[in-house]
Design goal:
142 residues, mainly alpha
């Protein structure tokens, strides 16, 4: 996985671009507040991936754990942006009652966004714990 830092930075810049483009679409969303949230999720998660790419060579984990960390943070970054964008498009409110007020969505749309955002939370938590473990002091190369 010696190419991983570059891959993380590429995906970070691509997600940053998606976040910027989402910002242009805000006026066209059913829920413009969630559109702003989707814009910010894309931009912030893109910056997170670029930053992680810069620090990746210092993460010391077994190859399997490194792969899990890579895929969980990549998954969570993209699905976070996608789920928030869908929430803005559909006007869902199950996980965001304040920003979703008076924007009725279909039950299946609520389920899609809820499953997406819950899976993001679990994946990002797992990936963050792995990366923190790999960055702990005194850890030798795996």
């Amino acid at each position: 996985m010696e190419d991983t830092p570059r891959r993380l930075m590429w995906h970070g810049m691509f997600l940053f671009l998606l976040g910027l483009l989402t910002g242009f679409l805000e006026p066209h969303f059913i829920n413009m507040r969630m559109g702003l949230a989707a814009h910010l999720e894309g931009v912030m998660n893109g910056i997170f991936l670029v930053t992680l790419g810069c620090a990746w060579s210092r993460v010391r984990l077994a190859p399997a754990a490194l792969a899990v960390a890579f895929w969980t943070v990549l998954y969570s970054a993209y699905v976070n942006w996608l789920s928030t964008t869908l929430a803005a498009l559909w006007g869902t409110a199950a996980l965001s009652p304040l920003t979703g007020m008076s924007h009725p969505a279909k039950p299946w749309q609520e389920i899609v966004v809820t499953v997406g955002l819950l899976s993001v939370g679990l994946a990002l938590l797992a990936g963050t714990i792995l990366i923190l473990w790999g960055l702990r002091r005194g850890k030798s190369a795996a």
